[in-house]
Design a protein that fits this description.
The chain has a 3-stranded antiparallel beta sheet with strand order 1-3-2. By secondary structure, the protein is of the alpha+beta class. The longest helix has 16 residues. Helix content is 60%, strand content 14%. The radius of gyration is 14 Å and the shape is globular.
Length: 88
């Protein structure tokens, strides 16, 4: 019963995100960035259990969509934050 409920919930979430052009992983990333402004890509990847190679296209997609902004933290790290569109 729990498995069926989880499947139904995930299907409903996917259906609601589709018109926005988002997948569940995109939404999860946006939620974590909103809760942790300035989080680095590597910390976000660890939290979502996404390998570095898969984080690059995910973040590029969100940035190209105008949902994500990057700001330098130090010489090599960039912090992630949501744009006003990303918050909406």
């Amino acid at each position: 019963a729990l498995r069926r409920a989880a499947h139904a919930t995930m299907a409903e979430l996917a259906a609601r995100l589709a018109p926005l052009g988002l997948r569940q992983v995109d939404f999860s990333a946006l939620m974590l960035i909103e809760a942790n402004p300035g989080i680095t890509a590597s910390a976000l990847g660890r939290a979502l259990e996404i390998q570095r190679a898969n984080m690059v296209p995910l973040l590029k997609k969100l940035e190209d969509a105008g949902l994500l902004a990057r700001a330098p933290i130090d010489g090599k790290s960039q912090g992630l934050s949501l744009t006003p569109e990303g918050r909406a």
